[in-house]
Write a structure and sequence with these properties.
The structure holds 2 protein chains of 2 kinds. By secondary structure, chain A is an all-alpha fold. Chain A has 7 helices and no strands. In chain A, 69% of the residues lie in helices and 0% in strands. In chain A, 19% of the residues are buried. Classes of the chains: A mainly alpha, B mainly alpha.
Chain lengths: 195, 104
């Protein structure tokens, strides 16, 4: 290790701050989940209200509001009417909430496989070939003659299978490319300093 | 000291913004179940009507002891109205929390 290397690592590098702009926001590839909690809560509340309406339909007979009279009293009629209305409204509301919940769950399940990279073997192979070719060709416009490229970890088939989301891979690809470019520049620096 | 300045620092090529992975478009906000929310509001109103029905219809004398049907009506109506209002508030809270976290 030379003295220039120690100085370069110990001291801050003001010339690098000129070219570096403000830190870019970290790209996030995690999709937002579809809200299913709200219709689920509405479904639970409507089902419980339906039970209350059903209880109102049973209460005049269970508690014997008639007391042996020939006709039902007016309170029992009001209970039956209100209970029927609440039960019908609760069932309709529960059906509407469940329909909305099913729609959201289906949309969520149909949107989830699209974010996965390995839908088929061809797509996985295509993505792998793109990841191998694109960053290197863009980050290394003029390779130095005689210099060996830095070893880079090539994604294997097992890695593709264990990373179904692909979000981490997409997130780390530019970081690995930048690290490789940095290592390459360090190698070139050492070669130039050597006599 | 001039040797400490690496000239190739300026030649280093950083990945541009175009090379960064594409951020997926935000999830489209699902439509609110307006009919279901209206039905839950109707259930809450029916619960309120059930609480007031014994006194409006006139079966329950003012100041007198509550009959069995009045007790059932008031208790059931309070429970139904409370459940419906609680369901509406929980729906509202869940929707607002989702919008605050993922909405744009």
């Amino acid at each position: 290790m030379t003295t220039s290397d120690t100085n370069a690592t110990a001291e801050p590098e003001p010339w690098t701050n000129k070219t570096q702009s403000a830190p870019a926001p970290i790209p996030v590839s995690i999709p937002a989940p579809i809200p299913v909690l709200a219709p689920y809560l509405g479904l639970v509340a409507s089902v419980l209200c339906t039970f209350g309406g059903a209880w109102l339909l049973l209460a005049p007979y269970a508690l014997d509001f008639r007391h042996g009279a020939a006709h039902l009293p007016r309170t029992a009629v009001v209970d039956l009417g209100s209970g029927a209305a609440i039960a019908v409204a609760g069932i309709a509301t529960a059906l509407l909430f469940s329909t909305n919940l099913v729609k959201r769950l289906r949309a969520d399940s149909s949107a989830a496989p699209e974010s996965r990279p390995a839908k088929s073997a061809g797509a996985a192979a295509e993505r792998q070939s793109e990841s191998e070719s694109e960053p290197e060709s863009e980050l290394e416009p003029e390779p130095a003659p005689g210099s060996e490229p830095a070893p880079e970890p090539a994604p294997s088939a097992s890695t593709q299978e264990t990373d179904p989301g692909g979000a981490l891979r997409e997130l780390l690809t530019p970081l690995v490319a930048a690290l490789a470019a940095d290592l390459r520049s360090h190698d070139e620096e050492r070669r130039r300093q050597e006599p | 000291m001039s040797a400490t300045v690496p000239a190739q620092r300026s030649e280093r090529i950083e990945p541009s913004r175009a090379e960064l992975p594409m951020i997926p478009p935000p999830v489209s906000r699902p439509k609110a179940p307006v009919a279901a929310l209206t039905g839950l509001t109707l259930v809450a109103l029916l619960g309120g009507w059930l609480v007031a029905a014994p006194f409006i219809v006139g079966d329950q004398a003012r100041g007198g002891a509550w009959t069995a049907s009045t007790r059932v009506d008031v208790a059931t109506g309070t429970a139904v109205a409370g459940l419906a209002v609680l369901g509406l508030l929980c729906y509202l809270a869940a929707a607002i929390s989702w919008l605050a976290r993922y909405g744009r």
